[in-house]
Amino acid sequence: MDIVTKPKLSRRILDYTLLTVLALIVLAPFLIGLWTSFLPTMQIAQGNFLSTKVSFQNYIDAFTQTPIIRYLGNSLVISTATMIAQLIFCSMSAYAFVFLKFKGRKLLFTLFLATMMLPFEAEIIPNFQTVKAMGLLNTYSVMVIPFLTSAFGVFMLRQSFMQMPIELKEAADIEGLGHFQFYWKMVLPYNRIPLMTLGAYSFLGAWNQYLWPMLTTFSNDFRPVQNGLRQLQSEETFNDWGMIQATAAIVVIPTLIVLFIGQHYFKSGVNEGAVK
Q1: Cα 132–chain centre separation
Q2: Which residues of 8-32 are buried (b: 16+ CB within 10 A; e: fewer)?
Q3: Do 103 and 35 lie in a common domain?
Q4: Which phi and psi angles does 242 have, rounded to 5°?
Q5: Sign of CA dihedral 94, 96, 98, 102
Q6: Is residue 90 part of a domain?
Q7: CA–CA gap between residue 184 and residue 21 (Å, rounded)
């Protein structure tokens, strides 16, 4: 018994040690940035990262001396609108590809997937010319309309919808439910975990955008938070590294909240599925 247990214990210790080291490597930049956000800029410039002179002054300055609240509000509006739009349009498209029978369905879906092979950078010029012609530059619309749907989101939800028991559709047909009723009352509740996953993915994707907002927004009224951080570094706050680190830490908070909420619901869904 001891001969079998000791190798297992040694292997477990080795595994946890390796995981701890890797976790520290991954978290080190974030933890260093978070720590320096509490230090005075002078201490950071001197390289004195072990200083005990910590305070929340950098955070106070970030809220009072920079338009960070405006940037956060812009990103929240853009990310929420993008998330809602993708959940609606991707789920409807996936439903059509699974439950509606029409000629050329497989070919159309193949062409839909082919768009995933195009990098976003290849689409920037035609997209920019289109939104410029529509007069959408420097508005919320220019940040949302190009991302109303997602080929990846349609593919993911289609695969999930295909796992539904065919008996559910047959029962819905017997009960006389139309397509929209079946979609709303059965398909969406049954696939809430994939929908939450897509919602978190689309929200974080919109929140972390940088290149497209840089090209299409020119004022703080519509500039999202990632470009706002870059703007702060090019203004008079360039040398105030303590405040910039505090601003960066503030920006990370919403993404962490989304990840934690998504993880909570994902675990709840998995546990509920295991019980069933």
Answers
A1: 26
A2: eeeeeeeeeeeeeeeeeeeeeeeee
A3: no
A4: -60, -45
A5: negative
A6: yes
A7: 46
Q: How many CA atoms lie within 13 A of 157 on its CB side?
A: 32
| 3-state class percentages of the chain: helix first, strand second, coil last, to nearest 5 | 80, 0, 20
* pLDDT tens across the length of the chain (276 residues): 444 466 788 888 898 999 999 999 998 988 888 888 888 877 777 767 677 777 888 899 888 888 889 999 999 999 999 999 999 999 999 999 999 988 989 999 999 889 888 888 888 999 999 999 999 999 999 999 999 999 999 999 999 999 999 899 889 989 888 999 999 999 999 999 899 989 999 999 999 999 999 999 998 899 999 888 888 776 655 577 888 888 888 888 888 888 887 776 665 554 545 444
C-alpha angle with apex 132: 219 to 88, nearest 5 degrees? Answer: 85
Range of the domain at 169: 70-265
Identity of the amino acid at 176: G
CA distance 31 to 79: 26
Pair 76, 185 in one domain: yes
Same domain, 164 and 46: no
Question: Around Cβ 44, how many Cβ atoms within 10 Å?
Answer: 19
Distance, CA of 240 to CA of 42 (rounded, Å): 9
Please, are residues 91 and 157 in contact by the beta-carbon 8 Å criterion? yes
